[in-house]
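Help needed: design a sequence for this.
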């Protein structure tokens, strides 16, 4: 390993996506190991629009494990961070970098300290699953630094101990978290159902709904649900197992009507068990409900559903359109019902893949104001009833790939000489 006066720093930078569940995880059977009461299925979101980048580094000159999140130092003392660090260090292998004269033996990892810097390219703790991308990226990048032999499924079982939904961010495309049966959690990990190319027509539009930071975290919310809701047992034992099979088929066959029906009803049932919790938990707000009715009205007016919606533990809407054409029509409807404040630049209101905006024929606010009511809406909504400013912005994206190592050193978040954030 070399002496403390040695100045070498070894680092790895990785990028990891976030994911949105279409069959929800809600409820644990083991709080420490984070073992769920049902399987869940998610779609990985394109990391070009929503992702975490993490640089992990090791040096004999570091005196303690330290972490910076979005430029601010945070504590690594929490049990979940500690579980991930312990599990990874326990599996670390020898690492040799002849060019830099570095030779780390596997037992050295127990003594060496780490510096970690992470950046989310989207708001943290805003209900956009930052913990999922963040914990997955931490585990993935450390596994690369310490040369772990484990595959992504085995790494997902470590990320799971950081945050349950994080285990599904170890793969791109469509991912299932198998709940497992063992008490030690060894069979509770993520598997890829299909990669992102399998169903590449889908377009995802996220409505970031104005909200204060949520009152009930997922962790405490699901604990209360398991303790007090009678419906959750029925959901976990009877409803989800059938839906998992049906959702796997829908994904395999690219059967959008079944996919949409299952995603919407499962989101609705998740929010129903929240309401069945005592005291009740409300994650969706009035704007969320209006988005649901906008989509439901349109879906009912068409022969088959055009758009699926799903909501996690917050008011943000995740809408999945069957293809680009539908996504453009959806965007017109969303902008008609939820226009930005008059002084907003449309380019800041629709972010991510802006080409959908072009498909929808919208360049500026004049085009938004000129939108006519969609055919399924009978009466023109007078401007005062439109919900200006109830949505902060929309993100246009698509299903995306899994974690990757960024080999371009300029993308590292830590300085290669000091080991501190750049
Ligand atoms: N890049 C990151 N690296 C490590 N940990 C992170 C990262 N980003 C977020 N976290 C952890 O996740 C916490 C936020 O998780 P929280 O569940 O409150 O919000 P969220 O994940 O954005 O929302 P939700 O899980 O409801 O979708 C942060 O306080 C931090 O501990
Ligand atoms: C509603 C959800 O987003 C709940 C996510 O819960 P978390 O994974 O954030 O909870 P912990 O395991 O306690 O960290 C549904 C889902 O992602 O499946």
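Sure. Designed sequence:
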């Amino acid at each position: 390993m070399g002496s403390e006066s040695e100045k070498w720093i070894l680092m790895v930078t990785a990028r990891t996506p976030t994911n949105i569940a279409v069959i929800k995880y809600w409820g644990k059977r083991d709080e420490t190991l984070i073992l769920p009461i049902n399987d869940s299925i998610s779609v990985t979101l394109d990391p070009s629009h929503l992702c975490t980048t993490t640089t992990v580094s090791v040096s004999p000159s570091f005196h303690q494990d330290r972490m910076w999140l979005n430029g601010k130092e945070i504590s690594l003392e929490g049990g979940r961070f500690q579980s991930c660090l312990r599990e990874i260090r326990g599996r670390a292998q020898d690492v040799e970098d002849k060019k830099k004269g570095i030779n780390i033996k596997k037992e050295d990892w127990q003594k060496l300290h780490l510096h970690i810097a992470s950046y989310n390219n989207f708001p943290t703790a805003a209900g956009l699953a930052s913990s999922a991308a963040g914990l997955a990226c931490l585990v993935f990048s450390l596994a690369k630094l310490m040369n772990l032999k484990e595959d992504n499924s085995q790494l997902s079982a470590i990320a799971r101990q950081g945050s349950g939904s994080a285990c599904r961010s170890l793969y791109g495309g469509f991912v299932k978290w198998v709940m497992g049966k063992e008490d030690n959690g060894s069979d509770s990990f993520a598997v890829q159902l299909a990669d992102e190319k399998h169903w590449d027509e889908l377009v995802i539009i996220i409505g970031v709904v104005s909200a204060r930071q949520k009152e009930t975290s997922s962790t405490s919310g699901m604990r209360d649900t398991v303790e007090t809701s009678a419906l959750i047992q029925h959901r976990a034992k009877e409803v989800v197992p059938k839906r998992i099979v049906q959702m796997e088929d829908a994904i395999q066959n690219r059967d959008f009507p079944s996919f949409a029906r299952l995603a919407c009803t499962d989101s609705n049932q998740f929010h129903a068990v929240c309401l069945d919790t005592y005291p009740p938990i409300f994650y969706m707000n009035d704007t969320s409900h209006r988005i649901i009715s906008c989509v439901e009205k349109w879906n009912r007016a068409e022969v088959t559903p055009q758009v699926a919606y799903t909501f996690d533990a917050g008011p943000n809407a995740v809408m999945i359109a069957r293809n680009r054409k539908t996504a453009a029509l959806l965007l017109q409807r969303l902008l008609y019902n939820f226009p930005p404040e008059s002084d907003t630049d449309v380019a800041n209101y629709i972010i991510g893949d802006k080409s959908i905006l072009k498909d929808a024929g919208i360049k500026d606010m004049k085009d938004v104001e000129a939108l006519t009511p969609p055919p399924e809406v009978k009466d023109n909504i007078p401007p005062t009833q439109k919900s200006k400013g109830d949505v902060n912005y929309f993100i246009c994206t698509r299903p995306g790939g899994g974690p990757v190592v960024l080999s371009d050193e300029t993308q590292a978040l830590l300085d290669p000489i000091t080991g501190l954030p750049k």
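The chain has a mean pLDDT of 94.
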